[in-house]
Amino acid sequence: MLSEPQRQSILTLHEKGASVRQISRLLGHSRATVRQVLAQGVQRPARRAAPTATRSPRLTSQLPALYSKARGNVVRLQELLREELGQDIPYSTLTSWVRALGLREPAPVRVGHYEFAPGQEMQHDTSPHRLTLGGQRLVAQCAALILGFSRYFFVQYYPCFTRFEAEVFLDTAFRFLGGTCRRCTIDNTSVLVGAGSGPGASIAAPVVAFGERFGVQFVPHAIRHADRKAYVERLFHYVEHNFLPGRTFGDWRDLNAQARAWCETVANQKLKRSLGTAPRAAFEQEQPALRPLPLHQPEVCLIQHRVVDTAAFVHLETNRYSVPERLIGQAVEIHQGFETLRVFSRGREVARHDRAIGQRHQRLVAPGHHAPLRRRRTQPPPAQQALLEHADARLTAYVEALSTHAPRRGVARLKRLLALQRTYPPEPFLAAVAHAHAYGLYDINRLEALILKQVRGEFFLLGED
User: Which residue ranges does UniProt annotate as crossing the membrane (predicted)?
Assistant: First the structure.
């Protein structure tokens, strides 16, 4: 259908004497269309409106209550109108009434533009990104903080994002900026929000205490108004498609080190058309307006208590960390930072480990914590062995072999061997010992039989008949 300006163009050219063919060529319309417009003349034919049901004021006033009763189901609303009011309204007409009254969705409103003074606001949010870490494909949580005035920002990655990681990131970001803004706009996430939603939500007590330390008030945006923090929302697309492609990462520390270097040397140095300058240059103007950091900034850590197991390890997040053996069975206090883990016993640090970030079922042993395990206790040789070994070389060799073959260090056999040495003459005794050692004979009763065989002619001489 032609618009009114197009119709007026055809009529004007016709009044100037142009033929139908010329008008068709000039305006690009078919000759049939040109003839139809000329036949209609100046008056445009009125469009016939399709017959629609009449919406009376009484019906209009009752529609919101019936729509709520139907729980937003227009089919059920149609049935309620038929049952309670006797009105048979077509479904298409009823849906148009629902839209016109704004019952299903509020009418769209024009979006605005936020202007921030230096040091007035910063925005924080997280977004999941897929990346390759140590040769493994995984999903990491990208946390970002951006200043509203200068658009100067900082990003880091974490395997998960709990309240502990949130405080770790914000503490690191505040140190990176060298100051803070008075307000920080956040999402309606349960990580920071304790109850409710929107600007009137109740922030979790630990987060409130953390913000008071830096002079920051955390304010969630209203539901379905994520454009309230559009700067940080737009930032994630830039990070995902500029920082991650073509880069490899060995571990979480390497990933965050590269992300920090990219923020400092690349992203914040790039000219922004909306700013007319680079974020780094705008940040130099905003930095004097930031709140200074507190003089003392304690380390963000989780304090947990464990009992040292029988293997001299403490368990945390399915991983095992070694402690000195003297602490077996004792209660210790663990200070869990993001990159390091410290173990305290009675107020003194007894162990320090690099935390196994994003890993499970790892076993970390620090040098000096565990001595080598000796399954068999080393005991001094029996006193009888020392008495026997100094008598003769033949006896020494036999005693060493006897100690290895006899059970429980051969103490009982060594006692009997010493008794045989003291009972019988040396030469027959040593000759029997050498003979027994040559044949691997370590039975003391049989050894005594050999000794008696050597000495029977000397000690048991019987007279002739």
Answer: none
Going edge to edge, which strands form the sheet with 313-316? 313-316, 319-322, 363-364
How many domains does one find in the chain? 5
Strand order through the sheet with 153-158: 153-158, 136-147, 121-133, 183-186, 217-220
Angle at 141 between CA 135 and CA 145, to 5 degrees: 130
- Contact 387/360 with Cβ under 8 angstroms? no
- Same domain membership, residue 229 and residue 135: yes
| The pair of three-digit structure tokens given for residue 86, joined into one six-digit string | 């006797």
What backbone torsions phi and psi does residue 342 show, to the nearest 5 degrees? -120, 140
The conformation of residue 249, written as its DSSP 8-state character, comes to: B
- Return the amino acid letter for 280: R
pLDDT digits (tens, 9 = 90+) for 369-397: 998 876 665 667 777 777 777 668 888 88
Residue range 30-47, pLDDT digits in tens: 999 999 989 887 665 555
**Residue 51 domain flag:** no
- Identity of the amino acid at 24: S
Three-state SS at 375: coil
